[in-house]
Structures are given as C-alpha cells and as structure tokens.
Amino acid sequence: MQAGDAVDHYIAKMQHLAKTIKADEKMVRFAILNGLLPHISNYVTQQQPKTVPELLQAARIAELTTPISSQTDSGVSLQLAGVQDQLKKLSEKWDAQTQVQAQAQAQAAAIQTISETTL
User: Where are the alpha helices (DSSP H) in the chain?
Assistant: First the structure.
C-alpha cells in the first residue's frame, strides 16, 4: 500500500490475490497487515482483529482518524528548523563574546607588558 491508496482498494486487491493462491485467512490477515501504511498498521495491530472484515473495519477507522505521517513529519521539520535557527544565533553570540574576551585579554596582556618594560 502506498500513500494515497484507500485501504478498501488495497485489502480487496490482497483478498483477490489470496484467493488466487488459496491462502488461509490467517496468512491473508498477516499479508494485509504487513502491507498497510505504518500509521494504519499500528492502529489495526492494537485492535487485534480476528478476521479480515474486522481488520478492514479497523483499517478504515485508522485511515479516517490517524494523521498521515508526512503531515506530522512536516510539522516536526518546521520545529527542527526553528531550533536550528536558534542554535545558530546562540553560536554566533557565543563566538562574538569569545572573540571580545580574547581581544580584551590580549589588550590586558599588552598593557601589562608595556607597564613592565617601562618600570
């Protein structure tokens, strides 16, 4: 099953293939479950369907109620981009502060050297 495919279509196709090879219902359920999209498969597994119709019903519910992972991933990506921007700004501030401190220490050392040579 690929993103955008309806579970009804996918399961009907799998049932047709199962009839072709005369697979038992347990094998059909296993094959269907392993071919579902992860967000649907997770929900269906939690429901523990005992028959293909129960599996189909659970898959329909999951298809209608669970978010598609790409939508979730895009939200996480946006949040990650925000965190990366903040880290970059903090890094720039840190570098600037470190540079100012290094310059101040160099000036203090130069002044101390001049003071020692004039005494």
Answer: 7-21, 25-35, 38-47, 52-65, 69-118
Residue type, 95: D
- For 49-78, what is the mean pLDDT? 81
Same domain, 89 and 61: no
Q: Is the CB of residue 56 less than 8 Å from the CB of residue 86?
A: no
Q: Which residues, including other chains, have CB under 8 Å from residue 32's CB and lie 6 or more apart?
A: 10, 11, 14, 52, 55, 59
pLDDT, tens only, 74-94 = 677 778 888 888 888 888 888
The sign of the CA dihedral 15, 34, 60, 9 is: negative
Task: Collapse the DSSP code of 62 into the 3-class scheme (helix H, G, I; strand E, B; otherwise coil) and give the result.
Answer: helix
pTM for the model stands at 0.54
What is the distance between the alpha carbons of residues 20 and 29, in angstroms, rounded to a whole number? 15
User: Is position 2 within any domain?
Assistant: no
- Residue 43: which domain range? 7-65
